[in-house]
C-alpha cells in the first residue's frame, strides 16, 4: 500500500513539474498577430450606435499663394472607443499597435464645410490601444474661401473659418477638444485664433518683410535720388538727364517685377497706389529736368548769336561814362525759378502723399 502511494505521489510531482513548461509553449502575441486577430473578428457598428469622438486640429502650415483663398495644412487627430478592438486579454501594454489602413475599421469621416480643394499629405496613422481606444491621425492640405478684400494688399488681413462636421451619423461630438496653430515661417502671421463648438476661426495678417525689401524701400530711396538733379546747376544738362532717367526707369522696372504675380482686380489696391506715387514724382522731376535743359540750351544759342554785336558795343563803351558801364542786375532765369519751386514742392508733396498713405493703409494694418 505504501508503495502504491509513493508511486502516485511521484507521478503527481512529475505532472506538476511539467505544467509550467506547457504554459510557455505558445509564442508571445506580436503586433501583427494581434491586429490580424482583431480585424478577423471585427464587425462595423450598427447604424443606431452612438460613438463619442474627440477631435483635435493643428494648423501646421499656411502657404504663400497670392489670391483670395486660405491655403492651410492641417494635422487632424481623432480618438474614440471601440470595445471590439480591446486586446487586454491578449497583451496588456501601454504601447499601441499600428494598422496600415483606416478603411479596415469604422472611422468618423470628418468633413470641413466650404472646401474648394483638398489633398492628403503623407500616410495615415492608426493606433490601437489595449483598452480599445483608437487614435487616427492624418495631414491634409485644404483651400477654402477667406473673408477679406484685396483693396489693402499687401497691408491686408483675412479671416479663415473652418466649420467641421462628420458624414457618419454614428459619430457623436459637439466641440473641438483642441485647436492649435504651430509656429512656422510663413508670409502670414496669426493675430488671433478662437474655437467655438465645431468652428475654428483664425485671423491672419500678411507679413511685410518681403514687400518692404523688394518694393517699398528701394523705390523710396530712388525717389530721393531723383531729386538730386534739382540741386545741380542748369548748365549740367547731361548729368541731370542721366540721373533722372536712371531713377525713373529703375523704379518702373521694379514696379513691373513686383506687380507681375499680383492678381488683377477691378479696383485699385494699396500696392497700385504706391506704384503710382513712386512713378509720378520721378517722372515730374524728369520733365522738369528736360524743361530746364531746354531753357539752358536756348540761352546758350542766344549767347552765340550775340557774339557778332560785341565789336560794335566795345566802340561806344569807351565813350560812355564809367557809371553807365556798370552791369545791370540780371533777372533770375526761368530755369532757376523752376529749380527753386521743385526743390520745395516735390519733397513736400511726396511727404504729404506718404502720410496719407500711412493713415489709410498702414495704421489700420498695425492695429
TrEMBL record:
GO terms for cellular component: plasma membrane. The keyword Translocase does not apply. Keywords: Cell membrane, Ion channel, Ion transport, Membrane, Signal, Transmembrane, Transmembrane helix, Transport. Residues 40-175 form the Neurotransmitter-gated ion-channel ligand-binding domain. The keyword Amino-acid biosynthesis does not apply. The chain crosses the membrane at residues 211-230, 242-259, 271-297, 340-363. Residues 1-14 have a biased composition (Low complexity). Residues 215-325 form the Neurotransmitter-gated ion-channel transmembrane domain. It is a multi-pass membrane protein. Gene3D superfamilies: Neurotransmitter-gated ion-channel ligand-binding domain, Neurotransmitter-gated ion-channel transmembrane domain. Its main location: membrane. Residues 1-28 are annotated as: Disordered. SUPFAM superfamilies: Neurotransmitter-gated ion-channel transmembrane pore, Nicotinic receptor ligand binding domain-like. Coiled coil: none annotated. It is found in: Cell membrane; Membrane. GO terms for molecular function: extracellular ligand-gated monoatomic ion channel activity; transmembrane signaling receptor activity. Signal peptide: none annotated. It comes from the Eukaryota. This is Uncharacterized protein. It comes from Steinernema carpocapsae (Entomopathogenic nematode).
Amino acid at each position: 500500500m505504501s508503495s502504491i502511494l509513493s508511486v502516485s505521489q511521484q507521478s503527481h510531482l512529475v505532472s506538476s513539474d511539467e505544467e509550467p513548461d506547457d504554459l510557455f509553449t505558445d509564442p508571445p502575441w506580436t503586433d501583427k498577430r494581434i491586429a490580424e486577430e482583431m480585424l478577423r473578428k471585427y464587425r462595423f457598428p450598427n447604424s443606431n450606435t452612438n460613438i463619442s469622438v474627440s477631435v483635435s486640429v493643428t494648423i501646421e502650415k499656411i502657404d504663400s499663394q497670392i489670391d483670395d483663398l486660405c491655403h492651410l495644412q492641417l494635422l487632424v487627430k481623432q480618438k474614440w472607443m471601440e470595445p471590439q478592438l480591446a486586446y487586454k486579454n491578449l497583451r496588456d501594454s501601454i504601447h499601441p499597435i499600428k494598422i496600415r489602413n483606416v478603411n479596415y475599421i469604422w472611422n468618423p469621416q470628418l468633413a470641413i464645410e466650404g472646401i474648394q480643394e483638398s489633398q492628403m499629405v503623407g500616410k495615415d496613422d492608426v493606433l490601437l490601444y489595449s483598452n480599445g481606444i483608437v487614435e487616427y491621425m492624418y495631414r491634409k492640405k485644404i483651400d477654402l474661401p477667406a473673408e477679406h478684400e484685396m483693396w489693402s494688399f499687401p497691408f491686408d488681413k483675412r479671416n479663415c473659418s473652418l466649420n467641421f462636421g462628420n458624414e457618419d451619423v454614428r459619430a457623436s461630438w459637439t466641440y473641438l477638444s483642441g485647436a492649435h496653430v504651430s509656429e512656422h515661417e510663413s508670409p502670414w502671421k496669426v493675430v488671433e485664433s478662437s474655437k467655438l463648438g465645431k468652428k475654428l476661426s483664425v485671423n491672419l495678417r500678411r507679413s511685410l518683410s518681403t514687400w518692404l525689401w523688394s518694393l517699398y524701400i528701394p523705390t523710396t530711396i530712388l525717389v530721393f535720388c531723383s531729386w538730386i538733379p534739382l540741386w545741380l546747376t542748369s548748365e549740367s544738362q547731361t548729368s541731370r538727364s542721366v540721373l533722372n532717367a536712371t531713377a525713373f526707369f529703375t523704379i518702373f522696372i521694379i514696379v513691373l517685377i513686383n506687380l507681375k504675380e499680383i492678381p488683377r482686380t477691378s479696383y485699385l489696391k494699396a500696392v497700385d497706389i504706391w506704384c503710382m506715387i513712386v512713378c509720378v514724382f520721378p517722372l515730374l522731376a524728369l520733365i522738369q529736368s528736360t524743361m530746364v535743359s531746354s531753357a539752358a540750351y536756348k540761352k546758350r544759342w542766344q549767347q552765340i548769336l550775340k557774339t557778332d554785336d560785341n565789336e560794335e558795343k566795345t566802340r561806344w563803351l569807351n565813350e560812355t561814362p564809367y557809371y553807365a558801364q556798370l552791369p545791370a542786375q540780371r533777372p533770375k532765369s526761368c530755369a532757376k525759378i523752376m529749380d527753386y519751386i521743385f526743390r520745395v514742392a516735390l519733397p513736400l508733396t511726396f511727404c504729404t502723399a506718404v502720410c496719407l498713405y500711412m493713415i489709410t493703409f498702414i495704421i489700420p494694418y498695425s492695429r
